[in-house]
Amino acid sequence: MSSDNQWSAVEDEGQLSRLIRKSRDSPFVPVGIAGFMTVVSYGLYKLKYRRDQKMSVHLIHMRVAAHGFVVGAVTLGVLSSMYKDYIRPRFFDVSKK
């Protein structure tokens, strides 16, 4: 086997520096993570006061809310990326003319 494996991970990159690098590439990833954590925290808080609601129904509602927030953040990220890559250069770049 060759030692020049291009798919190997960078050894000196830590988790925090990797998260910072990824958040610069796509800024809505930290928004999705924060929203997910907020929904989970709220769900754990409300778990104590769920009254007569079944546990499984409560967990399903919290899972749907967390997934909805993450999907919304990803959708906003894709729309932002499409705007930066396609719409803004096409209509607002006057240097090409």
Automatic annotation (TrEMBL):
GO terms for biological process, alphabetical: mitochondrial respirasome assembly; response to hypoxia
Every HIG1 domain range: 1-92
Bilayer-crossing regions: 27-45, 65-83
Chief location of this protein within or outside the cell: mitochondrion
Pfam families: HIG_1_N (PF04588)
Signal sequence extent: none
PANTHER family: HIG1 DOMAIN FAMILY MEMBER 1C (PTHR12297:SF10), HYPOXIA-INDUCBILE GENE 1 HIG1 -RELATED (PTHR12297)
Record protein name field: HIG1 hypoxia inducible domain family member 1C
Record organism: Catagonus wagneri (Chacoan peccary)
UniProt lineage: Eukaryota, Metazoa, Chordata, Craniata, Vertebrata
